[in-house]
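If your schedule permits, I should be very grateful for your opinion on a structural question. Kindly check, if you would, that the fold set down in the tokens agrees with what the sequence suggests. Thank you for your consideration; the sequence and its tokens are set out here:
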Amino acid sequence: MAGRFPTAWLDELYARADIVSVVSGYLSLKKDGRRYWGLCPFHNEKTPSFSVNADLNLYYCFGCKAGGNVVQFIMEMERVTFQEAVKILAEKTHMTVPEMQEDPDYERRRSERDRLLSANREAARFFHDTIWKPEGKFVLDYLHSRGLDDGIIRRFGLGAATEQWDDLLKYLTDKGFTQREIVLAGLAVEKGDHAYDMFRTRAMFPIIDQQGNVLGFGGRAMGDAKPKYLNTSDTPVFNKRKGVYAINLVKKLRDLKRILLVEGYMDVVAVTQAGIQGAVATLGTSLTNEQARLLKRYVPEVWIAYDGDEAGQMAIERAIGIFEQEDVPVKVLSFPDKLDPDEMIRQRGVEAFLAVKPIGAVTYKMSRLRRQYDLETLDGRTEYAKKCAQILKSVKEPVEMDNHLEALSVQTGFSKEVLMAQIGISPESIGQHKQPEKRKDYSGNPRRLPQTYKTEQTLLALMGLGTLPEGTVKEDDFNLPQFRSIAGALLRGETPAKIMAEAEKEEIRQAAGEVFTILSDEEKANPAKVAADCLNKLHIQRIEMQIEKLRELTNAEDVNVKKNAVLEVVRLQKELARLKNQGR
């Protein structure tokens, strides 16, 4: 009977499974200390940043932040469901898969999802078959007029929705789907006692996920119908914020250096037909953080190639902001004469498209600003320089900073020294200005967090070992919300592998993945001592923060407030001295 695996059996499976052995079946690992390292299978890299923790049965990549337990690794590599991955692991571990526990609500949701995906798959077949029939010829003619050949139409599974009101509805009903299921999948709309097809008189673009499931559709209107593009609304199997068009094709590519993010489905198809790999598009919405994180897992860099009109350029600026939030390197392709990628290829040819050189995000933002100011006037140059200085504050590379300063100095007439002062840096400090993060050493500690959080991170990692005496650490010892959440789970007896598997938020999963891989062999050998040192440091840091706040009150006009603040500062300083001496 379908349902969920018994919890006790799953725990035993996790305990028995050897993640090193499993991962080694997919990629080469090299042992260094107590950890194993290899090239990450989830993004392109030349220096190993993918680590496997045999003690905790976890993997974590310090490059793309992918991480999880052994079952999640199999899910990612095999592109299978959780249940399928569990069965694969059980076979590798020589454990008999038990009868699954019945969960009526879970079974209802799973069954409903399967039915909706099946309905979408049948709809995709119906639309694709229709495009080759007389009633779909108007769509086929349109796609041919846009330069698409039959091969690319088949590769993307493009289709046609006829002008009839219920062609698809009748087809799916004959296939055994109920009207409720068809409506729930977003393929039909109910009005009173009647239902009719959602898509009519449109070229159809199936939206397929990494596992090959058809999640929904985008339909391009033929003629003057509105809206021009109609997309499947959010359903139990489709959320337009979380996926991108053609990610199923990107997943099949190996050693892809960049993803080309375009605006529309037609752009993706045209660019791909021209032999340019790795093109994707958002699903009728502006770029979202979820989509940026999805793309980050496949490539080290994204090139934005939106339409050349003003709306497209504004969308580029917003997308750059999203990618910067998610720490995704981004560049921009700016086409001449406000052309979009499809038009660029059809009017100028593939060679002209490839000749367009990508420009960095900072250069792009500064070029957009330049159009807003009259650089023939002093006021225009002044305001332009001040706005550019705000942009340059985000630049990490000293060489890049120097190049931008040189160009800005020529454009505005202000010296580099004046511009640096506007940014807030000095000529002497430019070499140290926001240096790029150093590659982590083989201790696994990226050393990126403020000191307080580094201490909390180490303390949390020690808890993950499960060797600290009960009561040593409390949830309240942590300030960072992600760390506090993980600490609470560990104190409830959950294992690191289970925490990684059940993390509902991406930031919790990433924080846990990094935490559980940072400890050096020396720290693991002396967990109690290291934990005591961490707690001492955290106590010191909290007292120093208290003293800093109280110092503001020592200048208060109220004599009693000032006196009490001074006395409390003196008391805390004594406590601080004691703790520091104890630490030594």
